[in-house]
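Can't paste images in this forum, so I'm doing it all in text. The chain is below; anyone willing to post the predicted structure tokens underneath?
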Amino acid sequence: MATERPRDARHREIDAIVEAKAGGVAETRDEADKYTVLGAASRRTFANWLTPTEEHFVCHRNDIPDADADAWTVSLTGEFDGELSMADVRDEYPTVAVAHTMECAGNGRGQHRPETGSVQWDCEAAATAFWTGTPVSSILRDHGVTDPEGRWLTAIGGDPSDGDDVFARSIPLEKALDDCVLAYEMNGEPLPREHGYPVRLIVPGWYGVNNVKWVEELRVMDSMVVEGSLERPGEHAHWQQVSYRIHPRGNEPDENETVDTYDTWAQLEGAVEHPYPFDANVMSLIGTPDGASPITVRAGETVEVRGVAWAGDDAVDRVQVSTDGGDTWIDAELFGPDYAGTWRLFRYDWDAEPGRHTLLSCATDDLGRRQPSRISEPDAWRDALENDEYPWNEGGYASNAYEPNGVEVQVHADDDRNVSK
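Text version of the structure:
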């Protein structure tokens, strides 16, 4: 696949983004030397509800287009027809702002053993931002597209690739009509180039791969994108039908024109063979303590354990915290903003004793689905979920095991002689 070749501009691009983001992100290893990948530089990012743009992860595989918003257009193709300028997108339709917790589908890939290929994320590829733009439903309805039954919306990115290959992703038209947005602002400012300037598709609660950057075409179809369905040269179904499929070692996923189940967890339970990562699985991360430095506590003092938990299209029902490596669990308090498609803050006041402790968090969604404890061995695919394991898969996608995300914390007792009076 041409799109996996090393990209000469990658390292210069990474250096420029790290500088622009003032150290809020750090590079993550990419075996193919193709992707630009930067994740949150500190776990403290996950102690706050809103992620500053400077700390929001970045992931793309092609060059950033040299875009001019005044000249950029979005073509409407397939079962509707037209072309929108950015002025049309901004001025001819309602403006909305949506909060969205975006997680890379490969977040946690680097925790798989044996290691899978591609980007070796640990847990740093998740963030929550406000995205301002035009409801996709307004554009669709304005062009007579109202019936979602059995239909799909394919978004195609304008990022230059090798040859005629394109980055294209399909989402159910039902989701597009529900809450998706063509965004041109992020956290109240124009989209940064690396986040999709001048326009990006935002799919609330769904993995980042579905949130296509640099959108140049929206196509309404009666199927997902498959080879030959876009009426253009080059390969264009790779990122829907080959990559970003969850499957055991050594399997080649079959191309599907459509699926009836979009919930990623339900697909993993057997609804779809070789699932597609659409909405995010239930997940949680501790932000503080971050484990980067020891904690010093006075007698009678507690330490606040704070983090975030999310569940894609579903809601977080419960978060439990363990301070002894999983031997015992305590319910944490959920607090702060409670928006669909975004994470919740949680906290627990920990009566910390001196010594080394392993802190874990485990979330449960409102359908009763609880994070599994670990990632399975490669050959345990069929029984993994039943054995409290997330199935090891060849792409390392949609992982949500809680043990690999534990935080090792050293606690010191305070010496009253060193306390300022």
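DSSP finds six helices and 24 strands in the chain. The first helix runs from residue 10 to 20.
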